[in-house]
Amino acid sequence: MELYLFETATRKEDAYAVLAYAARRCWGFETLPHIARHEQGKPHFPAHPHCHFNLSHSGTFALCTVDEQPVGADIEVIRPHHPRLAQRICSAEELVWLKEQPDKNTALCQLWTCKEALVKYSGTGLTVPLREICVPLPPLMEQNGLQFYSITTPDFCLCVCGHTAPKNITTLTHEEIFR
Predict the structure, then answer these.
(1) Which residues, including other chains, have CB under 8 Å from residue 153's CB and lie 6 or more apart?
(2) What Rg, from alpha-carbon coordinates, does the chain have?
(3) pLDDT recorded at residue 121
(4) How far apart are CA 12 and CA 4, in angstroms?
(5) Contact 170/4 with Cβ under 8 angstroms?
(6) Which long-range CB contacts under 8 A does 12-17 form with residues at least 24 apart?
(7) Which of 59, 116, 118, 122 is the residue whose CA sits 20 to 30 A from 148?
(8) DSSP label at 132?
(9) Alpha-carbon distance 123 to 13, whole Å?
(10) Long-range Cβ contacts of 135-140 (<8 Å, 24+ apart)
(11) Which residues pair with 139 in a beta bridge?
């Protein structure tokens, strides 16, 4: 699994520019192959079923992960959340864990990105309430044979989910992506 982060995205489409960069670097694609969506919305390359990817964006951040196996990724800007949000998205066990955390906004963002990464990995979409989607609580980051790799900075949380941890994490510049 390879992970690509662009920290100065100005529009949603920049995530696809990061994907084009990653696809060129990892798979040698000169141009981005046709992208289709599975029934629940997960993007894929129909002509290249062994090339898996997932995208996310939030604020000025765009994230792309690529692998030879299914992957899911999410990135979210850390911001204040309404207290009722935790009640809506967290299981009873997660609420106990959240209550113990010194920074509730960051901890909730960590949970959110892990849940989103899992849903995006599976390709099922949000077919059940988020509080029913169980993810490992930090520091444990493995569940049912899946690896969850999480990064938290003062500005954002990200999580990727797949069968392996990222081999490389590349932070891209505007010049690298748009040359």
Answers:
(1) none
(2) 16
(3) 95
(4) 15
(5) yes
(6) 12/57, 14/57, 14/62, 14/177, 15/55, 15/56, 15/57, 15/62, 15/63, 15/64, 16/55, 17/62, 17/177, 17/178
(7) 59
(8) G
(9) 21
(10) 135/111, 137/93, 137/94, 137/97, 137/111, 138/110
(11) none
**Token pair for 165:** 């941890």
Around 154, how many Cα atoms within 13 Å sit in the side-chain half-sphere? 0
First to last CA, the chain: 24
Report yes or no: 90 and 77 within 8 Å, Cβ to Cβ.
no
The tens digit of pLDDT for each residue in 42-98 reads: 999 999 999 999 999 999 999 999 999 999 999 999 999 887 999 999 999 999 999
Our CA dihedral for 144, 63, 100, 96, rounded to 10 degrees, sits at: -40
**Separation CA 126–CA 168 (nearest Å):** 29
- Element housing 169 (H / E): strand 168-172
Query: Which SS3 state, helix, strand or coil, does residue 86 take?
Result: helix
Give the residue-averaged pLDDT of 96-124. 93
123 versus 35: the higher-pLDDT residue is 35
Q: For residues 61 and 108, give the distance between their C-alpha atoms in angstroms, rounded to a whole number.
A: 18
**Length in residues, the chain:** 179
